[in-house]
Amino acid sequence: MFSSPLNQYLARLDVHYGWVMALLVFLMTIFSSAIGSAPQLIILPITQEFGWQISDITNAIGIMFFTLACLAPFSGALMLNLGVTPVVLIALGLDIIGLGLCIIAFEKWHFLITIGVFLGAASGIIGLGLAATIASRWFLKRRGLVVGILTAAFAAGQLLFVPLMAWITTVLDWRYALFLPITGALISSILFLFFGRFYFFLNKFKIVPFLAFRGSNE
């Protein structure tokens, strides 16, 4: 939506649009890291509130990892064929729906679906190939730097949000803690919707990967 004007503005500043895509993925990875850690944080509060066993929630987490493992091998193919933006938007939508339904869930099977299916599917279709896809599609050089930065975003998300979510869970309620990653996922999806669409038209607008137009000795 705003990607074309932004690309024209950045071109005048000699800034490649690939760095914008890397920034979007960096923010998305930070919030996704917080979302992936949310189920572990709410195990004890949920069991104490509903009088359940810990295994009742860990079963949902187990299904989440199983779903992730089933979908992860196809994540790279999805992004290469559909593009990064639609896959990321689908994943963020599943995250928002899954965490949102967790807030109003009150039965064991509710968490099997919200955590096990929705969050597992969201993590699975992103997999481990997002950073590599961005680096390979938008950069010819600096690929190692881009992959390293995007990989570090996962640890940054846990460092920034997990302690805060744990504090909110302890002081207020575990449901309030889930609003933090939901808000982050919503912000990230809006940014991707507005600025990530240019990825579709990479060939149409004749945008080459970063440093593809410069000498090979640079």
Here the CATH topology equals Growth Hormone, Chain: A
Order of helical and strand elements: HHHHHHHHHH
The helix content is over 70%
- So how many helices? 10
Question: Which superfamily, in CATH terms, is the homologous superfamily?
Answer: MFS general substrate transporter like domains
Q: Give the C-level CATH assignment.
A: Mainly Alpha
Return the domain count: 1
Share in β-strands: under 5%
Report how far apart the termini are: 33 Å
Shape: elongated
List keywords for this structure.
mainly alpha, 218 residues, elongated, disordered C terminus, 0% strand, 10 helices, 77% helix, Growth Hormone, Chain: A
Fold blueprint:
Layout: H1 3-12, H2 18-41, H3 43-50, H4 54-71, H5 75-82, H6 84-104, H7 108-126, H8 130-138, H9 143-171, H10 174-195
